[in-house]
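Report of the visiting student (M.T.), summer placement. My assignment was to run the structure pipeline on a short list of targets and document each run. The first record concerns Putative nuclease HARBI1.
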Amino acid sequence: MAIPIAILDCDLLLHGRGHKTLDRFDLDSVPDNLLLTQFGFPREFILYLVEILREALCRRTQRSRAISPEVQVLAALGFYTSGSFQTSMGDTIGISQASMSRCVSNVTRALVEKAPTFITLNRDPSSTEQSFQEFQRVAGFPGVLGVLDCVQVTIKAPNSEDSSYVNKKGFHSVGCQLVCDARGLLLSAETHWPGGLRDTEVLERSALQKHLQDAEEGWLLGDRRYPLRKWLMTPMDCPESPEELQYNLAHTATHEIVDRTFRAIQTRFRCLDGSKGYLQYSPERSSSILLACCVLHNASLQSGLDAWTLERTDPLEQPESLEQRPEDRDSLAEELRKDLILKHFS
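After the run finished, the structure tokens were exported:
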């Protein structure tokens, strides 16, 4: 029994008793370039995170040997941006791998609590008008509130024989329904969906649809996997006129923003990059980590950092068209799209 006790409490062996907080890593003495390379963000943003999360992190570590909020934030950023609890990362900030794991859990919960503050569709009229203008400057598509997509993040197979997390490509994942604005700021991020659900099923069950189905002005843009609705404009399946073709071109150029945004998020937060491996956690915890990274993305963008600085340049996957039954078609939405094409793309 002595060995596991020593492993679990190796911080005590390294640093001894009597510490109220374990400030092993002096943030002020670390060069700026090391913070960027090891933790993915500049000093000013890291200090900002520490301040907004301090209360929650201190609340969760009210022990005689609590790890300081600064060290907890650095540990979590190191994991999010590298994707692993590497021994070298723990050595850098002076904590064990077990403590790294606890820090990531604490910071993830604290960031998830902040999600309603940083990710919201509730906008005042002036913000809505600004959104319309910013999107129209992209490719001339009017009335756009946001661009919609559902993405997959690879996770390990759940312990139970639950096939609901097996997506159409045959691997386990959680689905994340995203909406962003023209700058790449996330307006909605629902990260808890089983990967086996189709995008349309996610939308039908989501808080997003309930929020927007009675919208009086504007619409989201979605790709061919989604149904056409008054509040959700999709491409024409077979454009037959120059106007319809121009509509599709503008739609594609504008909708691409959400794809670029998620590629940038995956590149910055490599724990989400399926090409580097998968999240080694339950679907619930994986969903929380994904949402925490979405909060960090918005917080960094609102702090003046570039959303797409680290964007990958992978080719975009072409979506399959939704096979819609005649009774599911929305005739009012079809008329609205026809009028939109005639008015703005002719």
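The chain has a mean pLDDT of 85. The longest strand covers residues 144-154. I thank the supervising group for their guidance throughout the placement.
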